[in-house]
UniProtKB/TrEMBL annotation:
Keywords (A to Z) from UniProt: ATP-binding, Cell membrane, Ion transport, Iron, Iron transport, Membrane, Nucleotide-binding, Transport
Lineage, opening ranks: Bacteria, Bacillati, Bacillota, Bacilli, Bacillales
Subcellular location(s) of the protein: Cell membrane
Name recorded for this polypeptide: ABC transporter ATP-binding protein
Keyword Transmembrane helix included in the entry's annotation: no
CDD domains, alphabetized: ABC_Iron-Siderophores_B12_Hemin
Organism of derivation: Psychrobacillus faecigallinarum
Keyword Iron appears in the UniProt entry: yes
Amino acid sequence: MVRLFTEDLSIVYGEKLIVKDLSVQIPDQKITTIIGPNGCGKSTLLKAITRIIPHHSGSIVLDGKTVSRENTKVLAKKMAILPQTPESASGLTVGELVSYGRFPYQNGFGRLSQKDYEVIDWALEVTGTINFKYLPVDSLSGGQRQRVWIAMALAQETEIIFLDEPTTYLDMAHQLEVLELLQKLNQQEKRTIVMVLHDLNQAARFADYIIALKGGQIVKAGDSNEVISKDVLRNVFQIDAEIGKDPRTNKPMCITYNLLKGEYKK
């Protein structure tokens, strides 16, 4: 089932065409990961779909309606995004930050209802951050802060969550912690997760569907066995990779690689 898709989408930054005529479908209630080299349009695509930036041409459709014409609060009840570098939460407690996720549901007075408080506590419980509720966000570790930002996105009660490089700046243990949390939200809460990742092995391990971008266009889209392959990685990243199997998940795994140094061009 597909609720969200783009048709012939083009996105321009300044005078530069970043994404050109991109048609992509996001599987519902699955984890989709977007991979590709720096500057290929991964983050730009997420921002355009969530209407942070405008698109030049084409369309983005959610539940049969064009996203660009949708009411802002209605859209915020369907999609949440955690950007690559969240805004500073200086001076806020964890509970206060997570409460911002309830903005789409507040009336003109901006007061939190009993339902709002219940959802906030639920989001904190699910992300394992309830014990941090009254602590300053600035006092937490990187992994803890990332879980709190995810809690804020969860508090929006959206069925689709976008994350732009959610593991950036985290150590290996905290990366795994965040990705396992997202997997849990997908499997237990049926949330559709769309995220940008740089680590190919993490993408292969956690994604149901992978989109490989290069130059703003799709090189390959499919499951991990289709995308994490020698030929696709050669085309997208200009590397000669050795692909094996993860002994714990049986998913493909990039064991090692060399730069092609210009002998392969496409």
